[in-house]
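Incident review: delayed structure delivery

Summary: a single-chain prediction request sat in the queue longer than the usual turnaround. Root cause was a stuck worker, restarted by the on-call engineer. No data loss occurred. The affected request and its eventual output are reproduced below so the record is complete for anyone auditing the incident later.

Affected input:
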Amino acid sequence: MMMPANYSVIAENEMTYVVGGGVIEAIGAVTAPIWTLDNVKTFNTNIVTIVGNAKLQNVVNKTLGYVFSGDANWKQLGQNLKGLFVAANGHFGDSFATTLGTAAAVYNLGTATVANKAGDTVLFKGPADKKAYKGSLNGKDFFITEV
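Output delivered after worker restart:
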């Protein structure tokens, strides 16, 4: 086969150097042996968890926290729910990020167990700031403390 004088055959993996740059390809070539599918899944899960944790308290306060506050009304509940999806400034990008954050917080609530604070409650302070439980027997008070 006859080729023009200014034509040369170059292997496909050498085209990066000819076409230019290839920074993304170089990063991919270096990290490909390190980043397995499990690593990518863990990375994505961690990002969702971080974003969800940042928005979680806001979601709980505007939903369950508000409903059980004792001052709940339908109008304000609607405003609270709208605030979980539409940013205060009304910009599309901020609203999109707010919606993703809310979705991540709901995902966290569905995949993790929340802390139960009931077991950490101290009813009475006993000697040396240990947990103590006050009782009474035959009109005499007593304390049961941790060992």
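Verification: The radius of gyration is 30 Å.
Action items: add queue-age alerting; document worker restart procedure.
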